[in-house]
C-alpha cells in the first residue's frame, strides 16, 4: 500500500466533548482532512511542539523520550499511521539505529505525532487510512452560510463581553489605556481565569487579545506556564509573534 505525506493544519476544541480536542491532519496532495480526537494532555504536548519558542522549566514526558532516543544514538525517522478501526487510529514510530538498522514501535497516534514534531520527523499514512477517515470540505450552501455568519456574530458578542469585563477589572476607561498601562498580577490572574472559563464558547484561536499589551501577554504566558497550561501559553506566544511580524 502507498504512503501519503500528512501535515498538521491545527487543533480545535471538540464541540461534542469539552475535555477533548480535534487534531486536524491534511494530505499534502489532495488536501483531504483527517480529524483525530485527542485528550487535553496530548493537545498541550502537540501545541508545545508546534510552538518552537516556548520552553518549560522541566522536561515534559515527550521531551524526555526524545532525549533518551538521542542518548541511545537512535533517530526517529518517521511516523506512520497504518490503520483506522472503529474510530481509533493506529501508528508506528520508525527508528534507525546507529548501524543503520530500522525498527518500529507501536504508539498512540497522538503520542507519535507529539514525538515526531519534536524531531521534525515526517508524518505518513497509508492511502487506505486516508480513504476511510479523510474528509473533504465543500462550499456551503446559502442557508448554511447564514448559520455560520450568525455563529460568528455570537462569537463577536462573547469576545466583546470578555474585553468589557477585563477592562472593568483593570479600572481603566478604554482598551487604549490598557495597552499603555500594564495590568497588575491580580488582574492578570483574574483575566487568565476568566478567559479559561470562557474558552469553551470560542473556537480555537478566536480569543481576542486586543485588550492586552505585550507586557500583559508576557504575564499571561508566565501564569499559564506556572499552571502547566502550555497550550494557552503557546497561543499567547503566537499572538506576540503576530504583533512582531505586523510592525
UniProtKB/TrEMBL annotation:
GO terms for molecular function: nuclease activity. Gene3D superfamilies: Bifunctional nuclease domain (3.10.690.10). Residues 3-137 form the BFN domain. It comes from the Bacteria. Signal peptide: none annotated. Pfam families: BFN_dom (PF02577). InterPro entries: BFN_sf, Bi_nuclease_dom. This is Bifunctional nuclease family protein. It comes from Ornithobacterium rhinotracheale.
Amino acid at each position: 500500500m502507498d504512503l501519503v505525506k500528512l501535515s498538521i493544519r491545527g487543533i480545535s476544541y471538540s464541540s461534542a466533548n469539552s475535555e477533548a480536542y480535534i487534531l486536524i491532519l491534511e494530505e499534502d496532495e489532495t488536501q483531504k482532512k483527517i480529524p483525530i480526537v485527542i485528550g487535553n494532555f496530548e493537545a498541550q504536548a502537540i501545541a508545545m511542539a508546534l510552538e518552537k519558542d516556548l520552553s518549560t522549566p522541566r522536561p515534559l514526558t515527550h521531551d524526555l523520550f526524545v532525549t533518551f532516543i538521542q542518548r541511545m544514538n537512535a533517530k526517529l525517522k518517521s511516523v506512520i499511521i497504518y490503520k483506522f478501526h472503529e474510530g481509533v487510529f493506529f501508528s508506528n514510530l520508525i527508528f534507525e539505529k546507529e548501524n543503520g538498522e530500522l525498527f518500529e514501535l507501536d504508539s498512540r497516534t497522538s503520542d507519535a505525532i507529539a514525538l515526531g514534531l519534536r524531531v521534525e520527523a515526517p508524518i505518513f499514512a497509508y492511502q487506505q487510512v486516508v480513504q476511510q477517515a479523510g474528509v473533504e470540505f465543500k462550499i456551503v450552501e446559502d442557508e448554511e452560510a447564514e448559520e455560520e455568519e450568525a455563529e460568528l456574530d455570537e462569537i463577536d458578542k462573547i469576545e466583546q463581553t470578555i474585553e468589557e469585563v477585563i477592562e472593568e477589572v483593570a479600572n481603566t476607561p478604554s482598551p487604549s489605556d490598557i495597552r499603555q498601562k500594564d495590568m497588575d498580577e491580580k488582574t492578570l490572574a483574574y483575566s487568565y481565569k476568566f478567559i479559561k472559563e470562557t474558552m469553551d464558547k470560542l473556537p480555537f484561536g478566536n480569543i481576542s487579545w486586543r485588550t492586552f499589551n505585550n507586557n500583559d501577554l508576557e504575564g499571561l504566558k508566565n501564569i499559564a506556564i506556572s499552571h502547566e497550561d502550555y497550550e494557552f501559553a503557546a497561543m499567547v506566544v503566537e499572538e506576540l509573534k503576530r504583533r512582531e511580524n505586523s510592525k
